Amino acid sequence: MSSIVSRLRRKREEAPLEARPFDLLCLTAAVVLVLHAMQLPPWLDAPLAVVLALRWWQRRRKPGRAPVYLKLPLVVLLAATVIFHYGNIFGREPGSALAVGLLVLKLLETETPRDAKVAVAFACFTLMAALLSDQGMVATFVVSLGLLPAVASMRALQPARLPTSLRRELLPAFGLLLAALPLSLLAFVLVPRLDSPLWGAPPSGQARTGLSEGMSPGDFVDLLTDNHPALRASFDSEPPAPAQRYFRAYVMWHYDGRRWSTLPTGRQPVPVEYRDSIGYRISLEPTNQRILPALDVPLSAPGNAILGTDRAITSTKPVQDPLTYELRSALSYRLQPELDESSRRRALQLPAEFNPRTLELAGQWRRTFAGRDDLIVKAALALFHEGGFSYTLAPAPLGRDAVDDFLFSTHEGFCEHYASAFTVLMRAAGVPARVVTGYQGGYWNKLGQYLLVRQSDAHAWSEVWLDGRGWIRVDPTAAVRPERVSLGAAAAAAAGQSEWQGIAWLREMRNRWDVVNRWWNEGVIGFDALRQRGLLTPFGVRNTDTTTLSVLLAASSVAFAVIGLIWALWRRRDEDPLRAALRTLERRLAKAGVARRSSEGPQHYLQRAARALPGQREQLDQLMRSYLDLRYAHQTPPPEPLRRFRRAVRDFRPRHVVK
Amino acid sequence: MAMAVAETYRRVQQWAERRLPALTRYRRPESLPIELHRRRIYIVPSGFGAAFGVLLLIMLAGALNYANNAALLLTCLLAAACVSSMLVAFRTLDGLRLSAIQAGHAIAGEPLALQLHVEAGVRLRQAIRVELDSQTHAFAIPAHETLAVEVPLPTEHRGWQPLPRIQLWTSWPLGLFRAWSWLYPEMSVLVWPRPEAAGPPPRSPTDDPIHQRLHHGDDLAALRDYRAGDPQRRIAWKASARHEGLLVKDFEQPRPRLEWRLDWRDLRHLDSESRIARLARWLGEAEARGVPSSLWLPGEEIAHGAGPAHYARCMNALAKLP
Fold first, then answer.
1. Using the beta-carbon criterion (under 8 Å), do A5 and B5 form an inter-chain contact?
2. Is A475 a catalytic residue?
């Protein structure tokens, strides 16, 4: 009757927390802090680490809660810091920062097992929050390992354990997680996904490098040195030739003398005539942009996206998580055979009173070639090819008349300089032209059979409209440095510099390793409601709905429960080797027709067996004597005779009873 | 408030025992050794386990809402680990054996030291708690070893006291599940009577000269059968002639000068419990001073002696009085 009352009383008089669980708890908090370190502002990271270290040191010396006049200001300070930095307390980033801070502050008042339990549970939650910003395979693996100290802390909270070292505390936790892995994978596959979020997922404010809607000199430098994957493309048939691997993103019409920018696009794509097309699938890394790069030139848009007038594909919402889409593109095509007047006007637009020398050169070409647009294009490419131009990622800065400076004095630059200068030249010479940015090239991963395109493969090129041929892609950079198209920006910039050669194998290895990242992105991160519905397609079920999933989940949980119960109920039958050996002997004799009766002792039984098997009488007598000797002459059977007895039993083969 | 909660709890428990025979199957006394097995081990989530479950649900909802599969995977991993810990909790108790119970001595009202001999069997057992009368003691046993767990048992009255139900439980490994089993060993312990706080000393032997004389000297007391080593001059030849074997004259040993003869009959003016309490006090004093004592009780007479064994015998006899 009084058990509940006494239990309540006991809870109040709870024993203080021991040193070991507290150490593990501090380790857990430290791991959480490290995992969040990249996301948190450094001036929040460092103080939290200091507070944690101080608290650990303080409790080692003398246990005791931090006083309220210390705790309360710290909590207020934390909240104020988060609001000051993020302007908000809700949402992924500020929420994570607040949670990490609160976890560290919770340790200040952790003095009883009860406090410790609350802290551990909260730590698990903050660990998960670390995955909200980075879903990568490595991040997931590391965060999962972060569960180890948390689980170990929970174990350490139990009373009366055999003493172990701090390192060995983590080992059983690892075993538990490992044993739980199959069940968790099953649950992962079968837990029904939501078609639409229950509550609004606030947009991530994180800045990512990537293509943008505008292009001004120097914009691409960050991109061209960024080696993160931008997209991966796998093709239904053979991949296109390297010279055709142009992924179109933004089409830029407007030039203000410095910056190229896009114009508002319509929803009616311009017509395209093509002979053959190629089907492929692109997995796009998060960009925070709405543009979906597509192989030049796409024929249609995937769901939730619009094919714009210039055949650039725009998604309805910014891409914040890895996105996979399927497309068809034409590789040899005639884009917009008829150019309407307004388009022509826009494709010839130039800012007034800029680049006079360029205009003069273009005017000269126009007179020379008298309306032969294709010859003008050739002349411009010849200029780039033979005019002493060089490719570099660190060009000299350009002045107000950027194109003049580039064409007539600096002679160095990278794709955006060439594309910009070429387009201005064309427009000045009366050839409709525009700038297109996107990605070019990529690494063909043989193992994974896909094309890996990195941010450093970002590229800018031009399109000119020629009568009867439509918009033609012209890549002036290729005229200067053909390696840019075949090898990539870094290789092109570094050609002839030996230091790059040394780490070529490293690049190669990283490109090969990417196959794992792709598998993770597509198989794990991209496993959404849609893919889940197709889960049972190999088994003939077209559309796996939530009910089926739930039934599957329940059924397989039961299966796992059975496996678990078998494990839990399984007992090692007999740990006494002597008895086990005798049991083996009994089994063999029973097969030969001499089963031991329940009333028989070993001596009696083996004597009877010897009588029943006269051919093996001596052997059985010997076995009986050694058994009796081992069992009754010693407290514990001596190892060497025991081994001999077991070998004798193993070698004993009864011949069948002669009746 | 607390009383009302306790009352409700008791009612629910009573109802459950009446309604769920499985719960009460092992609530009858049984003989030792008792081995725990699947039919008598129960598991429910602990309070912390329930709270942790709610947390897992929140994590699940968050991961699903943000369509974050990495977080979902982590949540699934943690949840699966928690569920697996239930099996570990079961295995911690499964196969545990209570092989013997050793009871110490205690006078009524004071805790009696019980030693539960628990065998670990094939695996290591950690964080097992034995709960007896709302007192909990935790212990761990390495595999293949036996541990004597000492538990105090509260006592109230003298005499035979049956052991109460003992609960063995564990929340190993993570504290999320509580696995328990009831042990109801068919065994009683003997509780000694509580000595009275103060009272008169026993009558000194010198007060009784007749009695002293009667037992003094080398007077012939009885004849008994010959045992190897008896001196020849002690043999009663005449008596032996009338008997099958040899008989030997037995003489009273000379008594030490000081001894206490404690007699139930000398305390007629008291009721029986008071008599017992007084005799218990005298026995305690005799034991403390090292004075030999003898005890006469209705139905049992204990010859004089001294030492802990003698004291225990006398106290047991007192405890067993109706």
1. yes
2. yes
How does pLDDT run across B34-63, given as a tens digit for each residue?
888 888 888 999 999 999 999 999 999 989
- A580 lies within 8 A of chain B by CB: no
- Report the residue from A161, A569, A575 with minimal CB separation from B140: A161
Q: Which residue has the tokens 């305390």?
A: B267
ipTM above 0.85, yes or no: no
- pTM for the whole thing? 0.71
State yes or no: is A415 an active-site residue: yes
- Residue A79 backbone dihedrals phi, psi, to 5 degrees: -60, -45
Please state the rounded mean pLDDT for residues A55-71: 88
Of chain B residues 177-196, which have a CB less than 8 A from chain A? none
User: Which residues are CB-neighbours of A430 under 8 A, at least 6 positions away?
Assistant: A348, A362, A366, A373
Amino acid letter for position A222: D
Tell me the pLDDT tens digit for each residue of B232-291: 777 888 878 877 778 887 765 544 457 788 888 888 888 888 888 888 888 888 888 888
Q: Which of A115, A415, A417, A457 is catalytic?
A: A415
Window A:128-167, CB contacts with B under 8 Å: 128, 131-132, 134-136, 139-140, 143-144, 147, 151, 154-155, 157-162
Query: What are the DSSP calls for B33-97, one per residue?
Result: PEE--GGG-EEEE-HHHHHHHHHHHHHHHHHHHTT-HHHHHHHHHHHHHHHHHHHHHHHHHTT-E
Handedness of CA A407, A413, A418, A420 (dihedral sign): negative
Instruction: Tell me the C-alpha distance between A95 and A77, whole Å.
Output: 15
Contacts of A404 (CB under 8 A, 6+ apart): A355, A356, A357, A358
Q: Which of A131, A176, A197 sits opposite B74 (nearest CB)?
A: A131
The catalytic residue among A26, A45, A373, A459 is: A459
Total number of residues shown for chain B? 322
Tokens representing residue A386 in the block: 């033979």
Contact at CB, A571 and B122, closer than 8 angstroms: yes
* Contact call for A140 and B87, based on CB within 8 A: no
- For chain B, how far is it from start to end, CA to CA, in angstroms? 41
A325, A234 in Cβ contact below 8 A?
no
Contact of B83 with chain A, judged by CB distance below 8 Å, is answered with: yes
Q: What tokens were used for B15?
A: 């109802």
Report whether pLDDT(B310) > 60: yes
Residue corresponding to tokens 């075949």: A486
Please check whether residue B74 is in contact with residue A131, taking contact to mean a CB–CB distance below 8 angstroms: yes
Q: How far is B87 from chain A (nearest CA, A)?
A: 6
For A532, the 3-state DSSP assignment is helix
A117-165: per-residue pLDDT in tens? 999 999 999 999 998 888 888 899 999 999 999 999 999 999 888 888 8
Q: Does the CB of B42 have a partner CB in chain A at under 8 Å?
A: no
Those of residues 45-104 in A touching chain B at CB distance below 8 A are 92
User: What is the spatial distance between Cα A568 and Cα A559, in angstroms, rounded to a whole number?
Assistant: 14
B71 vs A132: CB contact, 8 Å cut-off?
A: yes
Closest CA to B165 of B39, B42, B24: B24
- Active-site residue flag, A124: no
